[in-house]
Fold:
Amino acid sequence: MSAREQDFGARLAFDRGAPGRRGVDVPRFEGVPHALPDASLLRTSLRLPELSQPELVRYYTALSDRNYGVDSGTYPLGSCTMKYNPKLNEAVAALSGFAEAHPLSSPLDVQGTLETLFELQAALAQITGMAGVGLAPAAGAHGELAGILMIKRALEDRGELERRRRVLVPDSAHGTNPATAAMAGFTVTQIPSAPDGSMDHEVLERELDDTVAALMVTEPNTLGLWERDIDEVAAKVHAAGAYVYGDGANLNAILGQVRFGDLGFDVVHLNLHKSFSTPHGGGGPGAGPVCCSAELLPYLPAPVVVNGGEVYLLERPERSIGQMQQFHGNVGVLLRAYTYIRSLGLEGLREISTNAALNANYLWALVRDAYDLPYGGPVLHEVVFSGARQRREHDVRTYDIAKRLIDYGFHPPTVYFPLIVDEALMIEPTESESRESVEALAAALVAIAEEAARGDEALHDAPVTAPIGRLDETAAARRPILRWAPREA
Amino acid sequence: MTSATGAEGAPHPYVPATEADTRIMLDRLGLTSTAQLFDALPADHRDPSIELPPALAEAEVLRLMRSRAAMNADALTRPSFLGAGAYRRAIPSIVPYLISRSEFMTAYTPYQPEISQGTLQSAFEYQSVVCELTGMDVSNTGLYDVASATAEACLLAVRSTGRRAVALLEPMHPGTIDVVRTYAYGAGVSVDVVRGVDELDAVHACVVVQQPDFLGTIHDVEAVANAAHAVGALCVVAADPFALGLLRSPGDAGADVVTGEGRDLAFGTQFGGPSVGLFAAREAHLRQMPGRIVGQTRELHGPREADGSEGAPRTGYVLTLQAREQFIRRERATSNVSTGQSLVALAFTIAVQAYGPHGMREAATLCYQRAHEAAARIGALPGYDIAERGPWFQEFLVRGPLPAREILAALEVRGIAGGLDVSGRDEEAAQDAFLCCVTDTTPPEHVDALVEALAEIGAGR
Structure:
């Protein structure tokens, strides 16, 4: 713990240090200097902090003290799969042969990277049961965009793009799904959920016609439940001439248990920072590979790695939707995911999904009497409780419950999502939590429900143990302060 | 290396649950086997056959991956003059050290600001650094890379102007053009690749100019911005933030949106990623920005003092202006972006702040000088010349006595990656040329080796 400052957040790096200090030095140029470009092309001033190295290290160390990560404790953020990030992955990605490789190197100079990426493509194809994999997308939503654009191009080649303008999205979906469909130029038709938590099949069948491009479905869904009869749904979507897009954000629950390809999915994206243990980094970098059926292979984003006989090569698929990034994708993240798969093997991956489901269900069993559970159980990877009872009977919102969990030492779960659950508390313990830590989280949730019933004021003051109290988000949005500015004299 | 790992029945090291734990949990659930956890899954498709290589123990994986890494050419000792969008920089040693702190690395998107001030305040530092470098008013917390950020800038321009075409000014990185086309295909926007600002007209939502451009030349951004504004288009600049340590800020020159690539100063080249795409704009475009934005605010209530009274509310940071974003606005969001590249943005911020205002200028100037010295030496070789396209920063076009492809192949034989063959491009200066890059980190002895090799090749040896 670093030294306490009264109002640490008020002093940025820009407000620290002193003119003339620096955090790193630069070699001198030993030759005869060449003339610089015309002054009209050059900068006249640059305002940046001036800190010595020890000051800068202490500042960012103090900032890290004001954060909470998976290594700090239980982080049951639903739909985010906050599992343990193996340190071996970091050691591998840092090997200089990988880390220093230039993206435009001759393929002969990067065979170690290309072979690894080729094998990762093959492993993900096996795990998902899909025909091919593109590793270029940088994150889940980026993979969604790639996947939906592949469907768009396939429809174009079928001559049906003019007519098929609609994408069907269940109301339990992540916001990225409808946003992606819109970015790809489609309109969105929302499919309501049935009382059992699956999408309403009657509505779906009514909507399925020759104006539909695709159904975007998250499997298992954001309620932690299996979308009922998904193979039959897929068959109906195909019969209507449309494609089935799978959001693979929740793959962790079914690793090695079932495969998207066997169920009739045409394209699915994965989140390697969720299911395959790469660090979430405070919000990335992740990686969002897109996996597809044989029919859609020609449309994969560029590049893909191919086995050219003697050497591995980067190649652009014949009717590729194009590149998603300037180069080849988040390769450093891909190396970590490959390391994870090699560390686990198939039996290990099944152990992962089994224990993810076991922990989620154990939590459900320990907590279910304390909160409402609108969509039943048992569940797969996560459980979504509702704080509706606490709100109605005790004027305690899910917001308060989440903040109070911080005082108990936990990162709160995802809250107010999915949108179809009132006062939602979406909890995903992952396989990384021990039985004892699941029990401790359950005990905290139950204790908070009891505090609510008692009318304990602590719930409205929470958190009191965090580095800072509840913040004025309304003021932040009304009068945005979005960058440092020099203090007025 | 086919050993199954660990003792029979022991859990994998990444999984705490023992057989005893499993039994206790199953009992509580009234189940007899873990297979019952998956009863909801379609029985016909359960337990599929999946072919994966067998698991390896930690030490075995490390050995395997070391051998893979060793299959790559050693980029640290091997002379390389490849640039073209990925440049070897001197990353301060504190950068990898600080970002490895697990409180940064193993956190996620800061949805709970009370225990995410490290991520949030760092992101505010990032936004501030990006605004200072680019001369813009507002920045988001970073997008995927420069190309996807530039594509998003084009979509912002389309939303802001209501026009359905964008212009990309050559010479531009082919990867950037490619990604803009990918996004434009989705949005139904047409992409015009233009050779001069005289080709702009009132159909264009924006013109994008790369600074320095793909062939290394420093543009007069003000002239491009004026031409764009004359037809009612926005001026988007895709800039190298490292070069901005020396060059005039695009904002000062009239740009409306600035994108950039932060990877090289933050994480290194990494075979191209992960990156971080800088995205900054004038305040007028704030509500149209894609991605996450962090704002400064204060506590609702100050901390409780020892005597029970309430202290002054403290300063803190939150995600803000979220009504633009996918999780609220869904299909009407400004972008579908959710997870970005936060850790790379953090690394970029620490690197720039370590350099500081003087270091950024000195490093960029060193880069400029080393590149110009190398170019002068190569241009002085018999049979070689450097194509002049105006002022340039770190990349230059080399023409020699043989076709570029043959020179590069001859360099390859000598263990030198001489640069990128651009001889097939349309620009006159690129004809028969290769693009050679020398930066602040290029070892002088590597330049010596290149000059010597080129002399030999020129002499037909």
